[in-house]
Write a structure and sequence with these properties.
The structure is a single chain. The protein is an alpha/beta fold. Helix content is about 45%, strand content about 15%. It has helices at about 5-20, 25-55, 70-85, 95-105, 115-125, 135-140, 155-170, 185-200, 210-220, 240-245, 260-275, 340-350, 360-365, 370-380, 435-450, 460-465, 490-515, and strands at about 225-235, 250-260, 280-285, 300-305, 350-360, 385-390, 400-410, 415-420, 425-430, 430-435, 455-460. The strands form 2 sheets. It has a 9-stranded mixed sheet with strand order 3-2-1-4-5-7-6-8-11. The protein has a two-stranded antiparallel ribbon with strand order 9-10. Strand 4 (about 300-305), helix 12 (about 340-350) and strand 5 form a beta-alpha-beta unit. It is globular.
Length: about 525
């Protein structure tokens, strides 16, 4: 698919999304449009899979009916195979395009009211997984799509009209699911999520990390590896960061994530399935990661995260006996959970693993318990591998400057910590600062080769960090001071004298002209 075709598809999808928008907030109509796209994906995947099974019998899945006893047996056989391989099942008359036909009154003897039909089908998708291995992955996946909501329209007829319109537009788009090389739908879905994030303001941080930052994190944790046994994000949002890591390597065996927000948790599971991640290869849980961790006994080869900046957490004294926090002697403060997330992630990091986490700059230099934790991680464990300063105003909903902290339990360079100051390397686009490909490449290359560059990067020894009392503020290590040019006072004085002499000569010329014209001089 060419870039022009991709842009055209993205524009088509955004236009369809705007058909739904009306008076809804971005995060509300997001749930409908992404849900409809997901339903289309499941239906088309189901049909392709079933047709492949039925090919040898010379029949198509769409031609089967569930009323005929002979074909009912075939449908049941397809269902059994589908639940094992795909993890869900749709009947022939539940396919996306069949519903669109009914909505457009293209089916004889049926009216075009499809809302009840559609709601039933979405429920049936979930019910088809009951008692199977994929049950948790499809549980309440469509719960945010209330087709009876007055936000879609005041009357059932008005709601039906807008839903039919959106489904009809989507039905005309070919996502090329039969091509295993292309991920047209996955890319389109990512595009829509990023568009919704840019329009959702502060709420966007709950579900989306800007793609440029995701790329940096993914490239860092995959350095030197073609395959990853596991990747984990404790605050996974829509799952985009986990999927970004998969793009940097040939294979990721298993994806793990946890997300507090129920709607965003649903979005993450949809995103995984849409990107072709088999239901057996991902384990996304919904709960508060710090208070109720869901992957207790597991360690991960790659960990990436963009936790909510300086969030509240309980800091309950009982956590001092929790294996994640007990070794530090102090808990992160209740009003600043940044290092609670760091401690949680370090606990789950495998010995051969790498973790990269986005944090506010305050985490680098704040005192008290946070300083105590930083000191332990560096002095006692020597886990800190690098600190990367990012530009301000690159995240949705906040303009504060941020940093990436990289940790490894087995560092290749145990004698130092690499500091990178990339805060001035960006392009301003309207009101947002953006990292371009060359900015990302410079950060990643500098990290991977541990390069030192004047006013950009520096390897600081553990002794230097100790001398700074474990304050990791980047300007302490990367000197970005630009001295002003020295001024020659004597030369300035001579210039002023020259100017005075020139002014005198000009005044005399003007006075001469005024005398000739017999007018008063202006001075």
């Amino acid at each position: 698919m060419s870039e022009d075709q991709k842009r055209l598809l993205e524009q088509q999808l955004w236009n369809i999304a705007n058909t739904l928008r009306g008076k809804m907030n971005a995060d509300e109509f997001r749930d409908y449009i992404l849900g409809f796209i997901f339903y289309k994906y499941l239906a088309e995947k189901m049909e392709l899979f079933a047709n492949d099974i039925l090919k040898q019998d010379g029949i198509t899945f769409r031609s089967l009916t569930t009323t005929d006893s002979q074909t009912l047996e075939i449908v049941e056989a397809v269902k059994e195979e589908s639940l094992e391989r795909l993890g869900y099942f749709l009947k022939p008359d539940e396919l996306f395009s069949e519903v669109v036909k009914r909505g457009n009154n293209d089916v004889e003897g049926r009216n075009n009211f499809i809302l009840e039909d559609l709601q039933r089908i979405l429920t049936n998708i979930q019910l088809s997984t009951m008692g199977t291995d994929s049950e948790d992955d499809f549980d309440n996946l469509f719960e945010d799509m209330d087709l009876n909501s007055t936000k879609l329209g005041k009357t059932p007829e008005a709601r039906n009209e807008i839903v039919v319109k959106v489904l009809s537009h989507l039905d005309k788009i070919d996502f090329k699911l039969e091509s295993t090389e292309l991920d047209v739908l996955g890319d389109a879905y990512e595009y829509l999520i990023s568009q919704f994030a840019s329009g959702a303001g502060k709420k966007a941080g709950e579900f989306y990390t800007p793609q440029e930052v995701s790329m940096i994190l993914a490239k860092i944790v995959s350095t030197g590896k073609d395959k990853l046994r596991s990747v984990y994000d404790p605050t996974c949002g829509s799952g985009s960061l986990l999927l970004r890591v998969a793009r940097e390597v040939k294979e990721v065996s298993n994806f793990y994530g946890q997300e507090l927000n129920r709607t965003t948790y649903n979005l993450a599971r949809m995103n995984m399935i849409l990107h072709g991640v088999h239901y057996r290869k991902f384990d996304i849980k919904q709960e508060d990661t710090l208070e109720h961790p869901q992957h207790k006994d597991l360690t991960f080869e790659a960990i990436v995260a963009n936790p909510p900046f300086s969030a509240q957490w309980s800091a309950n004294p009982l956590f001092t006996t929790d294996d994640r926090f007990s070794q530090y002697g102090k808990l992160a403060p209740s009003g600043k959970a940044d290092f609670a997330f760091v401690c949680h992630m370090v606990h789950h990091l495998a010995d051969n693993g790498c973790m990269a986490v986005v944090l506010p700059h305050g985490a680098l230099f704040r005192g008290s318990a946070e300083q105590h934790i930083r000191r332990y991680l560096i002095e006692n464990r020597n886990y800190l591998d690098a600190v990367i300063g990012l530009p301000a105003n690159i995240f949705y909903g906040t303009s504060i400057p941020t940093c990436i902290m990289v940790f490894k339990k087995c560092k290749e360079h145990p004698q130092d910590v690499l500091f990178i100051d990339a805060s001035q390397h960006f392009e301003k686009v309207k009101t947002q600062n953006v990292l371009r490909e060359e900015h990302i490449e410079k950060i990643v290359t500098t990290y991977r080769n541990r390069l030192e560059e004047d006013k950009y990067s520096k390897r600081a020894t553990l002794e230097q960090i100790a001398e700074n009392d474990y304050n990791l503020n980047i300007p302490r290590y990367v000197d970005t001071f630009v001295s002003e040019e020295s001024i020659d006072i004597n030369a300035v004085a001579n210039d002023l004298k020259s100017l005075e002499m020139e002014l005198e000569a000009i005044d005399q010329s003007i006075a001469g002209f005024c005398k000739e014209l017999n007018i008063i001089t202006p001075f």
